[in-house]
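lol forgot to send this yesterday, sorry. struct tokens for the thing we talked abt
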């Protein structure tokens, strides 16, 4: 697996940033979380005049072998059908990207359908879906490394366009299943407490999902009876490649490369938070570059955020995925940056500083 060089932002500029924030013509601390966001962006960019230029949204599509076990209410073909819909501008992600000025890149990294001739979809397909992790690793070591590299290359393309802030979304029926397992493994939370309804499972459906995922986890922890596959990866990446989807591992690579490139990373809902969790378990310093957009309705999302000591900006009950929650939160980040660049200070405004 590729090695990243990720460092926490240099703190030497913090006093100067705080002084500028405190001297804006407002009561000290009165803009609350916006002031915290401004501090974070200024530290990441190492400047008193931050900018959110050329915002980019990566929409990554991939199918999951575990879907064959009936763990999702949505059928597999919805993945490719929605990818085509996105390419025509008809999805929720399209609307929010248009609203907030994001360049949308729709990328097929593992959809179980031929999308190579669809205009507007970038073809980076690793395979037509992962294997079924109930019985075997979802992907090979080589596919895992390819997904990480693909994420890095996609970010580099965004940076070449001047991007300073990145959102990442996903489209992949069944991807709450690997997310739940990652949450259980990395947060040391019982698996049952990490599994929810996904796109809308009823109570018997959730019970079945729990049984399937519990068996898959047991097969991984106690491999007798399943096909062994030697791996050159260390234990943490090995668990990522065993359960993950191509769109999820690509997202991890993108997050790590974005942190390495000093971008602001807007993190979406349950699946992308699981990817962020995995990225931060690999490189804890990466979290300094992340802004968590919202807390969704999927069971366990709040607990996963709490395990990362992450405070989401919004709680809107969203569970659409696609990166829509992160995009909805972007105006708050924009307001924090505008505060730094457009608000007057006490001296220039001829207002008595009373604290």
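and heres what i got for the seq, position by position
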């Amino acid at each position: 697996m590729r090695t990243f060089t990720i460092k926490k932002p240099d703190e030497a500029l913090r006093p100067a940033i705080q002084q500028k924030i405190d001297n804006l013509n407002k009561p000290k601390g009165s803009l609350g979380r916006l002031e915290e966001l401004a501090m974070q962006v200024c530290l990441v960019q190492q400047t008193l005049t931050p900018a959110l230029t050329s915002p980019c949204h990566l929409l990554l599509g991939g199918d999951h072998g575990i879907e064959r076990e009936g763990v999702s209410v949505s059928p597999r073909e919805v993945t490719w059908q929605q990818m085509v819909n996105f390419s025509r501008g008809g999805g929720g992600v399209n609307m929010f990207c248009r609203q907030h000025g994001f360049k949308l890149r729709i990328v097929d990294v593992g959809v179980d359908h031929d999308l190579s001739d669809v205009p507007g979809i970038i073809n980076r397909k690793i395979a037509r879906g992962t294997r079924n992790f109930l019985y075997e690793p979802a992907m090979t070591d080589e596919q895992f490394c390819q997904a990480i590299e693909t994420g890095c290359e996609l970010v580099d393309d965004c940076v070449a366009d001047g991007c300073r802030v990145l959102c990442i979304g996903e489209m992949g029926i069944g991807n709450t299943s690997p997310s739940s397992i990652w949450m259980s493994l990395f947060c040391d939370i019982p698996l049952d407490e990490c599994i929810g309804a996904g796109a809308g499972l009823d109570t018997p459906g959730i019970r079945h999902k729990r049984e399937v995922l519990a068996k898959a986890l047991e097969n991984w922890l106690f491999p007798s009876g399943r096909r062994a596959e030697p791996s050159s990866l260390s234990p943490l990446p090995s668990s990522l490649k065993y359960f993950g989807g191509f769109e999820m591992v690509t997202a991890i690579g993108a997050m790590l490369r974005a942190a390495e490139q000093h971008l602001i990373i807007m993190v979406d809902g349950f699946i992308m938070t699981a990817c962020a969790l995995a990225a931060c378990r690999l490189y804890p310093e990466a979290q300094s570059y992340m802004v968590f957009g919202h807390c969704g309705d999927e069971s366990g999302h709040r607990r996963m955020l709490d395990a990362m000591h992450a405070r989401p900006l919004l709680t809107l009950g969203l569970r659409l995925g696609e990166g829509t929650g992160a995009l909805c939160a972007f105006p708050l980040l924009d307001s924090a940056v505008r505060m730094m660049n457009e608000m007057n200070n006490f001296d220039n405004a001829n207002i008595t500083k009373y604290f």
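The CA atoms of residues 40 and 288 lie 8 Å apart. anyway ping me if u want another try
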